[in-house]
Amino acid sequence: MYLNSFEKKIFNFIKTYKIFKKCDKILIAVSGGKDSMTLLNVLYKISKINDYKLGVAHFNHKIRKESEHEEKFVEEYVNKFGLEYHYENFDIIRYSEDSKISIEQAAREKRYEFLFNIQKEFKYDKIATAHHLNDVTETLIYRLLRGTGIYGLSGLMPVNEKLTRPMLTVTLKDVEDYVTINKVEHVVDSSNFSLEYTRNKIRHKIIPEFDGIFDNYENNILTLQKILWEYRNTVEKEFKKRVKYEKNEYIYEIKGDIFDSEILRLIFMKNKNYPPNYEETKKIINMGSKKQRKIYNFLIFKNKRHLHISQLK
Amino acid sequence: MYLNSFEKKIFNFIKTYKIFKKCDKILIAVSGGKDSMTLLNVLYKISKINDYKLGVAHFNHKIRKESEHEEKFVEEYVNKFGLEYHYENFDIIRYSEDSKISIEQAAREKRYEFLFNIQKEFKYDKIATAHHLNDVTETLIYRLLRGTGIYGLSGLMPVNEKLTRPMLTVTLKDVEDYVTINKVEHVVDSSNFSLEYTRNKIRHKIIPEFDGIFDNYENNILTLQKILWEYRNTVEKEFKKRVKYEKNEYIYEIKGDIFDSEILRLIFMKNKNYPPNYEETKKIINMGSKKQRKIYNFLIFKNKRHLHISQLK
Question: Which range scores top for mean pLDDT: A61-75, A270-284, B187-201?
Fold first, then answer.
């Protein structure tokens, strides 16, 4: 099987970051737009080498009248390839009104819920989405401005449990060239329909200004991102090394380095809570022995150099 | 001595980051523009509390005809306060032509050379420059696009040996308000005269777009910056803990975490060389035992899990 340079880039990225194993059963999220149709085409080729079993999931947001057409397009395309096909219709506008959240948030929530349900029900090893390097840059700038620590800067990961992003190594421009050269069929991308104001401004006003400042800035950002992924792994390792979980209590020793704070924040995140902010974190790390603080329903007690963190019922 | 909230912010920043000690002799770099005249005014007030001895250094680039006027303005102002005054005239345009470097680079190089010469000759404990939070953001974006690791993201530090930046905690807007409210005398800032294309685009095209995306994004960036400063300290600590320097050789053990690469890069930087890039760094870290690589005039040899790094004569 001959792979061109674009496909090879993705192939190598999958290998380096151990995104899939041979013979994995992979569920590809396909809207029908350029990005996801490219992912489908490339993974189909690579599946001939690595014996992946592919399935496609399409989520119809029912937001615009084109939705019907898109659904048909994806289904017919998938049938030609003879892949498993899953779809769901969901009235996002109604749901967002009922639950009083933004359309963007509602769409994301329900789309991922659908993907994970299919993944479990049909025993897929991995879910693959078509995020690319421009999404990495967008997320990086978004988080910088919204506020984040180093851990949060690591943003989109190539693998996050079942969720994978094999295209993080290629730019939107690369995808567009691939679509043109290989005449990849697609519908006009509808994934941007509900882009919130902030994301929209970053994508359409700020990122275009980056072009022409430094050639190839995207690859510089990819390199930083790789380093940030390593940092995240280092934090996870230190967590395992330093933290004991006993009798519903997390216990770890303050060592005076950057991981003191990262571990504290991670304990909150692992329990699906927002971590305390920078100042609060500092206060906890630096409080005296026998002192305690309460954040949400977490009780944090210090004994000499050890923090004891428990969740109140 | 009563300090207003702006002055207090700087006062607390100086205290938290141990920027100056009581009775320090401080050389303030003053162009005569808003930023540096604000720094001069604020440090003058704080000096009454902390017994600093202040001196002012003015560097005349001789680039524009206003330079003469600026020099006079600064000298007269400083005389009113009765502070030590140092200045130098230097023909930057000629120097940049002769040495074939950009005016921007020439100006920076000669300005710092002047500051450090004065600092040594007149035994100043510290040099203070008027960089503020907007400069932090600008540097962060600049480095993101040019390419950097986490260490490099830490950008402008509050203290870097003799060089200090007591105003990193306030924004340009804060400075402008302070100047207006307190009628701080200044000349129209000439420090931008030679701003290179890249910096110019970031300052005037990209950063203004950040306003209105997230309120107070500057403070989010300051928080990230504080975390990055801690990261940098952690790297320096790990360096001291892990690296031995014996018989002109740096020796350290590869431990499989993010500091393996950071330490390698730091060894190059401490010897005033550009560090190897990401791919090269990975190759060195991962090379087999008894293998060696040469980068510039550094010889890197691996023995089991230890790297031995020496500089060839």
Answer: A270-284
Distance CA B89, CA A173 (A): 49
pLDDT of residue B310: 95
Of A57-71, A90-104, A156-170, A262-276, the poorest mean pLDDT is in: A57-71
The count of domains in chain B is: 2
d(CA A210, CA B2): 45
Q: How many CB pairs under 8 A join A and B?
A: 108
Considering the domain architecture, whether residues B114 and B22 belong to the same structural domain is answered as: yes
Minimum CA–CA partner of B203 in chain A: A209
Q: Which residues of A touch B227 (CB under 8 A)?
A: 149-150, 258, 261, 278
Q: Which of A149, A209, A223 sits opposite B278 (nearest CB)?
A: A223
Q: Are residues A205 and A256 in the same domain?
A: no
**A257 part of contact set with chain B, CB < 8 Å:** yes
Searching chain B, which residue's CA lies closest to the CA of residue A197? B213
Of B278, B271, B214, B224, which is closest to residue B243 (Cα–Cα)? B271
∠ Cα A47 A32 A194 (to 5°): 130
Q: What pLDDT score was predicted for residue B192?
A: 55
Mark the binding-site residues of A for ATP, compressed into ranges. Answer: 31-36
CATH number at residue A114: 3.40.50.620
